[in-house]
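Lab meeting, action items carried over

1. Structure of the two-component assembly. Owner: GW. Status: complete.
Input record:
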Amino acid sequence: KNEVEQSPQNLTAQEGEFITINCSYSVGISALHWLQQHPGGGIVSLFMLSSGKKKHGRLIATINIQEKHSSLHITASHPRDSAVYICAVRMGTSYGKLTFGQGTILTVHP
Amino acid sequence: DAGITQSPRHKVTETGTPVTLRCHQTENHRYMYWYRQDPGHGLRLIHYSYGVKDTDKGEVSDGYSVSRSKTEDFLLTLESATSSQTSVYFCAIKKGLWETQYFGPGTRLLVL
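Predicted assembly:
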């Protein structure tokens, strides 16, 4: 069983819809990252959080440490949001090493 | 964008040949990482460095070695490339433990 599980694996939405991607992990962590990867492109860090909630533009990330669960929300989705969204966790300090989920492929249609 | 580059960006090589990938940063960040990304496996850590000449293994280190003789460069070497090492390789850097991790553009390696 993977230490980091994301759901859904694939998500299709219409422009303007509210989107939620979930991430569950099985061990205690010190931080959780959400990353974005466009097709054929590089990887960009969206959020790093260890508690509560963070917001950047239309993106919101939340984490519940007790339930070992995080969500990434996209409000008013747009076709340019189409990408792979990756959850990654850091356990302890561990030199900043990350363990990654498999990613969620998001496609937003106009 | 963090000043991080990878070279080469694309490489085709033959089984059994040595290959070296370079990660170069201009940010003076302490931590550097090499990952590989494969369909069905996601990103996996190969090796990492926490300072000049300080390196350690990640979860998929077999067949790979690294060196970091100066802050700005982290080299990944495939001693004798195999087809199972065909992958996209990403380098990442991090200033401090509680900082964001920045990724390089990736290197596509095909081992025939």
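2. GW to write a short summary for the group page. Key points so far: The mean pLDDT of chain B is 94. Residues 74 and 81 of chain B are 19 Å apart (CA to CA).
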